[in-house]
User: Fold this.
Amino acid sequence: MKTNPLIDPMLDRREFTLAAILAMLSGVTITISACGSSSSSPTTPTPTPQPPAAGDKTATISANHGHTATITAAQLSAGGDLTVELTVGNGHTHTVGLTGAEVVQIRDNTRVAKESSSSSGHTHTVTFN
Assistant:
């Protein structure tokens, strides 16, 4: 049975060099694998809002923590009933339902405000225009 080369007093130069290199490399590996976030729990990144495309309408959202809501120009042109999903904010989403008449009002630049669905114990007021 071979003894541990790191504590064996009878090491030859080759065994000592090999043991020393392995010890240094294991320290580097531990250091590299320990790099990362100082946070102990993962977080959901907040999406970066993109500017709306020409003709799209983007809502303002009360008590917002990262949500966005946009109605596309094509949806506005169609003018039918619509369910708009608020983008993920703080790990959850909401929806807001609009009637065809409300979509037409939004298209015609009339202010329309609706309460979103409840998620994570809260709602938001979603306002277009």
Remarks:
- The first strand starts at residue 57 and ends at 58.
- The CA atoms of residues 28 and 77 lie 60 Å apart.
- Residues 28-46 have pLDDT under 50 and may be disordered.
- The chain has two domains: 1-36, 57-128.
